[in-house]
Predict the structure.
Amino acid sequence: MTSRALGFALGVLVLAACGEEAVPFIDAAVDGSVALDAPDTDAPTADAPDTDAPTADAADTDASTADAPDTDASAADAPDTDASTADAPSIDATPRCGDGNVDPGETCDGNCPTSCADALACTSDVLVGTPGNCDVACLHAGTGCAAGDSCCSPGCDSTTDSDCPFTLSPVFDPNYDVRDLGTASGLPTNYGGLIVSPTDPYTLLIGGAANNVNGAIYRLGLQRDSAGHIVGIVGPATLARQGQYNDGGVVFAPNGALILARYPVNELGMQRAGSTINDKIVALSTVSVASSVGGLALVPAGHPGAGSWKLVSWSGGQWYELTLVPDATGTYDVTGAVMRLTLAGGPEGIVYVPLGSPLFANPGVLVSEYSAGKVSTYEVDVAGDPVLASRRELITNLTGAEGAAIDPVSGDFLFSTYGGGNRILVVRGFNN
């Protein structure tokens, strides 16, 4: 058991002993849970008092004779090198193939892959290395930008391969790469918003049968390469949560509640942490939001306007700042909405650009423009709202750009299409 796992187990025992309930973080029922680290019980122990400390001289009853210097008191005790030194980590990093641990220099040890299939038709899947050397790895090379092979290979777009359903803007092309992950098996069309599960980086949550009373949130697996980038989706999709009328906004709140934009009924659906049903539905007409909400975002920490909620309506493009106040049940009250500006292109999904990403000198936001068939970017002002004059096109030649999400592991930008083949696409190049 790792020290983190041991700390967690001890923390649970302590909570149980104190009569308190241990509460998982979020989405525990369907996506796993992440617990806060328990205090580190292996912290260094303070030294006990040094019993060899110098003893003060007793009063000298012979006043005529000066005391000789106390040679014990003048010498300071040397530091206790055993008690004051914290346990140092092991410095033996020599790979030991066969010990069951993946040491530095190894890619596997007792758990080496035997297949490298990545579920993508447009890559060649090659297994290299041997289990005996603990160096097995998977290589996924593109099949090339060949027209007519029904493959949109990594690094290709519609300008180099007629099988690709998009075009990457030339200004972004040197630094970014769009990959078509294709259509998900078992996911009802049309596709809605999406988000990587905050409790499991190998799970994608995505809306199926979007904008429909029969809509729901489904679960798909994610395949990643050695650098953590998303390279494939694993189906079939399985039902994860309620999601009637789901649209471009699928966002987890700080308290673990899932907030869903509901189109065309102009509502927010709220599912408290650990729940898979709509525990609360809020009509946005009560705060004068134009019908109907399409996209939703929470401004991340470190960005201008951090912690504020942003909402956009389709098809008018009205951009709002919402005020959400926690209620007593784990969901939120919507107490106000202020319209800031109007975006073009029929916006849907919105998400903030990871700070420091190439070609983004200033903080920005990505917008899936459903009506225009594009993904565009804007710089944002001090409140986290788009600066209209700063608009740049990232991807064009799309049909039905819908959801928008940033992968917390790699910084990859994920988006879905409502129609247009109902596809999931990923853009590499952003900071993580």
Remarks:
- DSSP finds two helices and 23 strands in the chain.
